[in-house]
Every structure is written in C-alpha cells, then in structure tokens.
Amino acid sequence: MRHRLVGELMTSAVVHVRPDTAFKEIVRLLAEHDITAVPVLDDEDRPLGLVSEADLLLNEAAREDPAGLLLTPQLAAAERARSRATTAEGLMTAPAVCARPEWTVVEAARLMQSKGLKRLAVVDEAGRLVGVVSRSDLLRVFLRHDRAIREEIRHDVLRRTLGIDPDTLGVRVRDGLVTLTGTVDHRGQVPVVERLCRSVDGVVGVNCLLDHRTGAVVAPARRADGPQAKTP
C-alpha cells in the first residue's frame, strides 16, 4: 500500500515575502496571484511565519468606528500589536508550522487538524522552503478514480498485504465508497480487511458485508494440573 506524499501534492512555485515587505505590497501579491496567504522567509529561505488575509484584516478590525455606532474591539495585546504592524515581520503568525515532502497525506492532515491550520509550509532537510500544501491539495486524493481504488484494494490490500485471493471476495467502489462482500477464513480477518481498506487514499467509507467461516484462533491458556484444553 502506498499513500500519496506531501511532495506530490504541494505547490512548489510559492509566492513569498521577506520580513521587511510592506503591508500594501503583501496585499498586492495576494490579489495579483489570487492566494490567501504568503510565507515569510529569512535570508536563507527558511520560513519564519505566515501572513494571511486574517492577519491583514486585523488592521481593519482594530479600528474604531468613526460614527461611534460600534463598540471598541477587545483585542489581546499580541493581536493589537499585529493590527498596528506595517511589515510582514510584525503581521505574520509565527512560528511557521512545517511539514516534510516525504510525509503522507494522513500525517499532514492530522497536523492541520490539530493546529487548526489551512496550510503548511513544506521544508527540506535544511529547513528551507520547498513548497506549500493546503487543505485543498490534500483533498485531491479524493479525485482518484474508483477503478484505481478498487485495483489497489484487490492487489495491494488483499493479495499482497493479507495474502487473500482477491477473486474470492467482491470489491465494489462507487464514488469512493467501498462495498466488500464474500467470506474470509477467520472472524478476526474482517476488521483487519475493513481497516486497511479505509486507509486507502481516496476511500470515503467502507460498507463491510464480509462473512467468516470460523472464529478467531485463540491460543490455549497453560495449566499446571493436567493437559491443556483446546478452545473451540
């Protein structure tokens, strides 16, 4: 089984800024390239942080209403300082949260979820920026064709990983939903097959209708007072 890697999905041609890049220049870059954030790099191209539309909007959100109809915004000290910043160094959210090109989609998605992020800077072994991966990039795995998903389940999951003849089970994939039918040898194989199918890139869900011929094989407990009894 092979998961898609961050290096395959990331955007390599990344628009970036330096710490001294001015506020209006950042806004211009976002509009010109139709993007929502830019990484801030040091002189060795290592990410220091990220300036997003949300960071820039703090400038507007912190302003008092000239008409006096709105309450003065209550911002934390750090947010208020960023709302008054005029360069990337003061505007950025730091430190930068980074991924590596060899990470799987699962690793990157879990980091995004845990940190509440929409994108990750991708760095090489020296910590230099090589790309940016976003939520939409990771979601591209769900564009895989059903046929490709079915073939991976049959050949990689069933035959290669589990040693099960794929022709003995029914594997149907429709819009990323996998339906498994047929009979496996042991009850313990059912959850294993289901779990591995769920881990295949592009799978939305698994409808497991597998039956089993026998119960799971359980090793008998040792007894000191006589012969061991076999567990049925």
What do you see in this structure?
Strand 1 and strand 2 (47-52) form a beta hairpin. The chain folds into 2 domains: 6-141, CBS-domain; 144-214, Histidine-containing Protein, Chain: A (2-Layer Sandwich). The strands form 3 sheets. A 3-stranded mixed sheet has the order 3-4-5. Strands 6-7-8 form a 3-stranded mixed sheet, with helices on one face. It is of the alpha/beta class and 232 residues long. The protein has 9 helices and 8 strands.
Please name the defining characteristics of this protein.
three-stranded mixed sheet; 2 domains; 9 helices; Histidine-containing Protein, Chain: A; disordered C terminus; CBS-domain; 33% helix; elongated; 22% strand
